[in-house]
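Q: What does the predicted 3D structure of Thioredoxin domain-containing protein look like?
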Amino acid sequence: MRAFLDSLAVLSFLGTVLLLFAFAAMLNMVRELQAKLLRAQAAVPAAPTVRAVDRFGSDDGAPTFVLVVSEHCPNCRDRAHRLAAVAGPDLSWHAVLLASAERCAEWVADSQVLPVIDAALVGTVAVGATPTLVKYSADGREEWRRVVGSDDDLDALLAVDSAERLSA
């Protein structure tokens, strides 16, 4: 009986060793597939970096800042109020609030900010988080986009752009 148990122990040990070799081979195959996938992704051309929205172009040569917001976001509401406070007719840019809910237009009522309520356009602009500030050139081409976390962020983004325009 002892010899039988010893044989079972040896066979189970050999089985474990064989399973380790099988797992190592399988892991090697997975790594090869991952490497092929990474090479394939690198070979695919990147999406165009310049997006254009004709609606955000301007005839006077001034850029347009679009604040993309969502209805149930308190941070979005605060940034919209701040944009409404700083936007004015004497500035060298246009301000737009882009949202999919009518309620968001109330946030910039009685200001120089143009509310655009268009769910399809929000999908076209396709921001990853709200609130996001997107700058469009006079011909409607996107120049950059940034998530705006605070009023200071918004002020800094608008001030940096104004400083760039003055130095140009």
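A (community wiki): The structure tokens above were generated from the sequence. The chain has two domains: 1-44, 54-167. The helical segments are 2-43, 74-86, 119-125, 151-167.
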